[in-house]
């Protein structure tokens, strides 16, 4: 038996037999073309000088963390949690969230806070609140999972992006009701939207 096994091994080495199934780890080069660019462009926008009687425009800073190995659906719940909070309160709340995504969100907010002080002339780093916080879909890498009876299934490795905008000043009392409308105003706005509808390719 040992001689037969040795002969089979020598035949295999001489023929350079290789498996058709690719089992080596996947390596992908993250290029700049795959990353979101539009959100950070708001930091470069230059506003005209304000008038004396004009309401002061608060300073803000936009920041993002890209290609997080985390589902964007799971990250959305953490992003919604900190909306409308001050930076100190958001960092305090995130320290008690036992989720991997909370660490990414916390690091992004700290980076944005540092950028606001060093590059955007914000005097006090604690005088900031979270005006925007949301997640986006990143790269999706498809893999293969083996099933019974020689069948294969698809597995997806999801990546996500996180975006945050810090604004100088105090947060509103109710973030989701900053400009409340009366029922009559809501009805009028809905009727106006319905009347503006147009059938495509019609006169």
UniProtKB/TrEMBL annotation:
GO MF: structural constituent of ribosome
Keywords: Mitochondrion, Ribonucleoprotein, Ribosomal protein, Transit peptide
InterPro entries assigned: Ribosomal_uL22, Ribosomal_uL22_bac/org-type, Ribosomal_uL22_sf
Cleavable signal peptide: none
Biological processes per GO annotation: translation
Principal location class: mitochondrion
Any one of the GO CC terms: mitochondrial large ribosomal subunit
Keyword Transit peptide: yes
Keyword field contains Secreted: no
Subcellular location: Mitochondrion
Subunit structure: Component of the mitochondrial ribosome large subunit (39S) which comprises a 16S rRNA and about 50 distinct proteins.
Family: Belongs to the universal ribosomal protein uL22 family.
Protein name: Large ribosomal subunit protein uL22m
């Amino acid at each position: 038996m040992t001689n037969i096994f040795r002969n089979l091994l020598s035949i295999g080495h001489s023929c350079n037999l290789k498996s058709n199934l690719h089992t080596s780890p996947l390596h992908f080069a993250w290029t700049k073309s795959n990353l979101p660019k539009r959100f950070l462009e708001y930091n470069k926008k230059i506003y005209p000088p304000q008038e004396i009687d004009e309401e002061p425009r608060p300073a803000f800073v936009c920041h993002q963390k890209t290609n997080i190995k985390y589902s964007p659906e799971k990250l959305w719940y953490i992003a919604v949690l900190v909306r409308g909070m001050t930076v100190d309160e958001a960092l305090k709340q995130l320290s008690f969230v036992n989720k991997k995504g909370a660490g990414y969100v916390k690091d992004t907010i700290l980076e944005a806070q540092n950028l606001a002080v060093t590059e955007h002339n914000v005097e006090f780093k604690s005088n900031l609140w979270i005006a925007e916080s949301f997640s986006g879909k990143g790269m999706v890498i498809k893999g293969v999972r083996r099933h019974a009876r020689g069948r294969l299934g698809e597995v997806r490795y999801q990546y996500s992006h996180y975006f945050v905008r810090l604004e100088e000043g105090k947060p509103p009392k109710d973030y989701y009701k900053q400009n409340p409308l009366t029922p009559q105003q809501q009805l009028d706005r809905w009727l106006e939207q319905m009347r503006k509808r147009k059938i495509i390719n019609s006169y």
